[in-house]
Write a structure and sequence with these properties.
The chain is 12% helix and 51% strand. It has 402 residues and is mainly beta. The protein has one domain (42-401): Porin, CATH 2.40.160. A hairpin with a 4-residue loop joins strand 11 and strand 12 (283-298). The protein is globular. 34% of the residues are buried.
Length: 402
């Protein structure tokens, strides 16, 4: 009887030992990831020439491409290397320096931080997440769309004047369902010129002085955005609404001697914008318009005043293939009437511009864009008054993606 009990105990012990070994085996065999397997590196470089068929060397675009006009030549517009990775199921990081920043009109190609943020998910699918650090402000589709994907060579003045370099330091809450996040990613990776994943709903607070600038008034700006991509047959449309509010401080190093301004240099900075996107499948539409109030130089009083602003753009594009080559013909018209708070004396602008061109991708690693620009720009500050420049120019950009 005792022998039978011992035999049973031995069999149970052997079974348990085998079961434990089978369960433990995956753990024992699991290979710990090396440090270089926890993140990825990618980037792109843009080289330009803008002086072909130029009719007016005094026509400038300070906010966009500084190599327009007089003394402009071959130009590196962007040199970006991006480090990013999902280092934990709920922790993502993204760091992007640019090595083509301009310290001045005579000193080029300085390294400067563009993005440095972490995404902290608070659920298993990261549908709810907080973004902390320097990143793009969720205001405007084209502002958030990477320059690597955008068709027109520069962003439109109307919405881009809201945030210089599109970025600032802050904390942002994003929410989007898992399926929608996957769709945002596909619209970029499959070549439909998407903006990337900035959530269906966004709410955030940020310094308000734009990227790489210190806070000057201890009053954060607040921004919110609501967008939703909708599938209609083979087509995808995405309507959006966004708005921000705060007070912008015109820095003293932006002022010309003689310019008048309010005592504390604080100016109301508020905007609301509407967006409509129809992705190019194969015909696409991209349209945005914003209205608001912000600091603007008034040449009649030589003063920086809080004034109304408005403007927007419409881009029509078409996605087509020729053999293995991808072609994107496009046309864009845009308009802006208002100030640019981050330029000298909160420079006053009226911009009327039309552009048409084509992007050619013989492969995923190289793109060539040719674009003809017809421009009428009034830009005035204390020194530069009664200044309206009109002209045309043909522009070329070569881009390598890696």
């Amino acid at each position: 009887m005792i022998k039978k009990h011992l035999l049973v105990i031995s069999l149970i012990g052997l079974f348990a030992q085998n079961s434990f070994a089978q369960k433990a085996e995956p753990i024992l065999n699991e290979k710990k990831k090396s440090w270089y397997e926890t993140f990825q590196i990618r980037g792109y470089v843009q080289a330009r020439y803008n002086r072909l068929l130029e009719t007016n060397a005094q026509l400038k675009n300070e906010q966009g491409d500084k190599s327009w006009g007089q003394d402009g030549g071959f130009f590196l517009r962007r040199v970006r290397i991006i480090f990013y990775g999902q280092i934990h199921k709920n922790v993502y990081f993204y760091i992007q320096p640019d090595f083509a920043s301009s310290a001045s009109t005579t000193s080029l190609h300085f390294g400067q931080l563009r993005d440095c943020y972490m995404d902290i998910g608070i659920d298993k699918d990261n549908e709810f997440r907080f973004r902390i650090g320097q990143s793009k402000i969720p205001f405007g589709f084209e502002n958030m769309q990477s320059s690597q994907n955008r068709l027109a060579l520069d962003r439109n003045d109307a919405l881009n004047s809201a945030v210089s370099n599109e970025r600032d330091l802050g904390v942002f809450f994003y929410w989007a369902p898992k399926e929608t996040r996957e769709l945002f990613s596909k619209l970029v990776s499959e070549g439909y010129k998407g903006s990337g994943d900035y959530g269906v709903f966004a709410l955030g607070a940020y310094n308000g002085q734009t990227a790489n600038k210190p806070e000057l008034n201890n009053r954060p700006h607040v921004v919110t955005r609501l967008t939703y991509p909708i599938k209609i047959g083979n087509q995808i449309i995405e309507p959006s609404l966004q708005a921000y509010t705060g007070k912008y401080v015109v820095a003293k190093d932006q002022l010309t001697t003689g310019t008048k301004y309010v005592k504390d240099l604080n100016y109301i900075d508020q905007r609301v914008a509407a967006t409509f996107i129809m992705y190019p499948k194969p015909f696409g539409i991209q349209a945005e318009y914003n209205i608001g109030k912000g600091p603007e130089f008034n040449p009649k009083t030589d003063s920086i005043e809080s004034q109304k602003l408005q403007g927007g753009y419409v881009t029509l594009n078409y996605k087509t293939n020729y053999k293995k080559h991808l072609l994107f013909p496009f046309i864009r018209a845009h308009y802006y009437d208002g100030g640019k708070k981050h330029e000298k004396d909160a420079r006053s602008y009226t911009v009327k511009e039309a552009e048409f061109g084509i992007e050619w991708q013989p492969n995923k690693n190289f793109e060539l864009v040719g674009m003809y620009t017809i421009s009428n720009r009034r830009f005035e500050d204390f020194t530069l008054q009664n200044n309206t420049q009109q002209g045309r120019l043909f522009r070329l950009q070569a881009q390598v993606n890696f």
